[in-house]
Write a structure and sequence with these properties.
There is one protein chain. With 413 residues, the chain is α/β, with parallel strands linked by helices. It has 13 helices and 17 strands. The chain has two domains: 137 residues, Aspartate Aminotransferase, domain 1, CATH 3.90.1150.10; 256 residues, Type I PLP-dependent aspartate aminotransferase-like (Major domain) (Aspartate Aminotransferase, domain 2, 3-Layer(aba) Sandwich). It is 38% helix and 17% strand. It has a seven-stranded mixed sheet, with helices on both faces. α2 packs across α9, α9 packs across α10 and α10 runs parallel beside α13. It is globular, with a radius of gyration of 22 Å. The chain starts with 21 loop residues before the first strand and ends with a helix. The site of pyridoxal-5'-phosphate (PLP) has 14 residues, from α3.
């Protein structure tokens, strides 16, 4: 058995006020960061400070508060862009990753995809990266095709090549890290091959941006989407990095205030990037909060966040082997995975597993994780899922293992 005393690479739990919380007198073991992350004090304070001292509508006011609010929001955009290796003008704020993907499906897809074309996604996508393409294909008469997921939770580049060789693929959309399997997909390879075949690419980085260094410039996709609340930021803000040439040619997604340059009775012209895609009053406090979140993550260094989570996943995989009846789903090694472990416990439904470990204040997820096609592919109705953030350490894994052993006792398995 590995020792729980081994030091964590990061030791930051004290930065997260929620861990001061006791439930029934006992500490919180939060293992659901793939669903949403906890927030450091600096993020909470930035939002609080914005509302207490700077709140005003942005972009239009000439008075001091309005200028401060605008600078805070646009300054956050600069830091968010830099955090992911993107450019400020092509970093668009959306409500979440789901809206970022829908933006592409509507504003790019409706213009460029038609009958006889194909959209290629994978069997491991979150519903957010499936349903917008289903709607697009239904409306345009295009075909939606899938790359298979192997029994070990991986994609095949040979199958990708074969699909691209058919000559009809207009768009390839794929998760950077699967929220169920934990698989880190070879996105640079996927993007390179798709691009050579003339296909546009969208990478769903919702699980990757919070836990590994991202450089969208080097990865090279046409679009890269992620969501603030999984990256220590607030809910209500997501990010779309887009290729400038495409964004400039695209029609707007939503129409209204702020996204226009001029409006006449019959026609309008569009604002510059990125505001052309940000209709209406922006989520200013949320943008400021996300700026504070990327400052915090940058301070930790994303290489350290990745190393920390890899170490924890390695430890968790090892310790889960000690629990009889556990079957871990997805790649075998921590190197191939992000900080997500889905598993089954023989003889106990995943919902019961989550319920029983909750008695020990261990928060894990059970269900289809918004990936019903993947559940079908895996032949399971649901899985239990533990996932990690920078604030977790080995004691959280130990608490999970202990709670699983107790769950087995309760069920007599
Ligand atoms: C891989 C992946 N994509 C997209 C999403 C959707 O994120 P949001 O609901 O914030 O848009 C999630 C959230 O669970 C996810 O894990």
């Amino acid at each position: 058995m590995a020792t729980a005393a081994a030091p964590s690479i990061l030791d930051v739990r004290a930065d997260f006020p929620i861990f001061g919380r006791r439930i029934d007198g006992r500490p919180l073991v939060y293992l659901d960061s793939a669903a949403t992350s906890q927030k450091p004090e600096s993020v909470i304070a930035a939002i609080d400070d914005y509302y207490r001292r700077h709140n005003a509508n942005i972009h239009r006011g000439v008075y001091t508060l309005a200028q401060e609010a605008t600078e805070m929001f646009e300054g956050a955009r600069e830091r968010v862009a830099a955090f992911a290796g993107g450019q400020t003008e092509t970093t668009i704020f959306t409500r979440n990753a789901t809206e970022a993907i829908n933006l592409v499906a509507y504003a790019w897809g409706r213009e460029h995809v038609g009958p006889g074309d194909a959209v290629l996604i994978t069997q491991m996508e979150h519903h957010s990266n499936i349903v917008p393409w289903q709607l697009l294909c239904e409306e345009t008469g295009a075909e939606l095709r899938y790359l298979d997921v192997s029994d070990e939770g991986k994609l095949s580049l040979e199958q990708l090549d074969a699909e691209l060789a058919r000559g009809d693929v207009k768009l390839v959309a794929c998760a950077h890290i699967s929220n169920v399997l934990g698989t880190i997909n070879p996105v640079a390879e996927i993007v390179g091959r798709a691009r050579s075949a003339g296909a546009v690419t969208l990478i769903d980085g919702s699980q990757a941006a919070p836990q590994m260094p991202i450089d969208v410039g080097a990865l090279g996709p046409d679009f890269y989407a992620w969501t603030g609340h999984k990256a220590l930021g607030p809910t209500g803000i997501g990010v779309l990095h887009g290729r400038r040439e495409l964004l400039e040619r695209m029609r707007p997604f939503l129409g209204g205030g702020d996204m226009i340059r001029t409006v006449d009775f019959q026609r309008s012209t569009w604002n510059d990037l990125p505001w052309k895609f940000e209709a209406g009053t922006s989520m200013v406090a949320e943008g400021v909060g996300l700026g504070a979140a990327v400052d915090y993550l940058t301070g930790l260094q994303m290489e350290s966040v990745r190393a920390h989570e890899r170490e924890l996943v390695g430890y968790a995989l090892e310790r889960l082997r000690e629990v009889a009846g556990v079957r871990v789903i997805g790649p075998r090694t921590a190197e191939e995975r992000g900080g997500v472990i889905s598993f089954e416990l023989e003889g106990i439904h995943p919902h019961d597993v989550a319920d029983l470990v909750n008695r020990e204040n261990v928060c894990i997820r059970a269900g289809h994780h918004c990936a019903m096609p993947l559940m079908r592919r895996l032949g399971v109705p649901a899985t239990a899922r533990a996932s990690f953030g920078p604030y977790n350490d080995r004691s959280d894994v130990d608490a999970l293992i202990g709670a699983l052993a107790q769950a087995r006792q309760v069920f007599g398995v």
